[in-house]
């Protein structure tokens, strides 16, 4: 039972189609890899920002503490 030429060409993927599928797979894995890298960079940036905010808050707290101590010293001097 022989296949007609049309049936045969429909049954088997052409080399072009196979190459295209392989290229698509490679592209997909590249996209996944790049997406992971972008996410890592975003996480790193967020962590750095959080640390920066924490440092700013700590410095502000120290400055406020220093002001408070100066004020307390003045009050003590006046008493």
* Global shape: rod-shaped
Structural class of the secondary elements?
mainly alpha
What is the number of beta strands?
A: 0
The share of residues in helices is: over 70%
Strand content: under 5%
Distance between the termini: 114 Å
Could you tell me the radius of gyration in angstroms? 34 Å
Q: Report the order of strands and helices.
A: HH
Report the average pLDDT across residues: 87
How many helical elements? 2
Q: Please indicate the count of domains.
A: 1
Q: Low-confidence runs (pLDDT<50, min 5 residues)? A: none
Largest sheet: none
Biased composition (Basic and acidic residues): 48-72
Region (Disordered): 42-79
Description:
The chain has one domain. The chain has two helices and no strands. It is mainly α. The longest helix is centred in the middle third of the chain and has 64 residues.
Write out key terms for the chains shown:
mainly alpha, 90% helix
Quick summary:
It contains two helices and no strands.
């Amino acid at each position: 039972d022989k296949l007609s030429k049309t049936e045969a060409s429909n049954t088997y993927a052409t080399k072009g189609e196979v190459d295209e599928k392989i290229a698509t797979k490679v592209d997909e894995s590249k996209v996944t890899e790049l997406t992971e890298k972008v996410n890592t960079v975003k996480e790193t940036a967020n962590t750095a920002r959080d640390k920066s905010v924490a440092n700013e808050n700590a410095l502000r707290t120290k400055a406020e503490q220093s002001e408070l101590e100066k004020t307390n010293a003045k009050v003590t001097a006046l008493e």
